[in-house]
Amino acid sequence: MTGPGTTGPEKTGPVLSVRGLVKRFGDVTAVDGVGFDLLPGASLGLVGESGSGKTTTARIVAGLERATAGTVELAGAPAGGRSRRDRLRRARHLQMIFQDPYGSFDPRRTVAQSIAEPIALHAPGPAAARHARVRELLDQVGLSARAGDSLPRDLSGGQRQRAAIARALGVAPRVLILDEAVAALDVSVQAQILTLLDALRRDTGIAYLFVGHDLAVVRHITDEVLVMRRGRVVERGGTERVLREPRHPYTRLLLDSVPVPGWDLERVARDRRALDGLPDDPDVPDSPSPDGDPTC
Ligand SMILES: Nc1ncnc2c1ncn2[C@@H]1O[C@H](COP(=O)(O)OP(=O)(O)OP(=O)(O)O)[C@@H](O)[C@H]1O
Hints:
One of its GO terms (molecular function) is ATP binding. This is ATP-binding cassette domain-containing protein. Residues 16-255 form the ABC transporter domain. It is a single chain. It contains eleven helices and ten strands. Strands 6-7-8-3-9-10 form a six-stranded mixed beta sheet, with helices on both faces. A four-stranded antiparallel beta sheet has the order 2-1-4-5, covered by helices on one side. Helices cover 38% and strands 21% of the residues. By secondary structure, it is of the alpha/beta class. Among the domains are: 16-110 and 172-245, Rossmann fold, CATH 3.40.50; 248-282, no CATH class. α3 runs parallel beside α6 and α4 (127-140) packs across α6.
């Protein structure tokens, strides 16, 4: 798995390595044996329906959730520790962007002050150097100095997402987790943020773990994809191949669920029931012989 930030044969190992990840919430197994590698500069997508375990996987990788079993290695060292030192190291290598970044900004501080905060924590130095770095970051994500002097509530959704990206980039992380990071934005703003993310990956060699449900967005931003269903990976491969020639019935169902001209809603509903091992037509009372056709 190589990305645009790398050239020639890969010399370094994965920047992120996940093995046998399991997460149980009581009786619910949210993640069930997930594993993958992410190379420097690569972009890997996690797709699947709501409840398939994408966000839980991402949250465990980010250290926001504790795994029931399995390992996460970041830049060649275990990433699961809870000590302050472990958390600082994780934050230094890995940052996460959420659908709505509003919560990660202090509403009383200017955007520039918020962007400066992690820099002060991870790379303490003279205030002038920090200010210069903040200006550079604002510029890198396409925000003006004026936007930097604003409070988060005075920015648009797209500007706020740019600010969140600038804040994350401040520590020069090697991995950025993007959890539905453009899902709440208008389509045109989405396109701008995706273009920005493309440029950042190309320029910095940062790697992305992208959680998303919009397959058009996933196709644009990722090289490889894992398709998750009920906590398990049911298909993986190059994004183009998986979306063009899906091999697993569930991946086909996901693709068929995207409304396009001529979309056959009934067929999607039928396939869904077959995959779930349910009888064909639950709405017909006394329907004869529920010989479902479980295919999975
Ligand atoms: N904190 C929690 N406590 C109990 N169950 C949880 C918790 N977090 C997630 N789950 C359950 O784990 C399963 C996977 O959820 P998860 O949010 O990871 O899926 P997802 O694919 O990211 O879905 P979505 O796109 O809706 O966020 C679901 O059944 C969910 O209800």
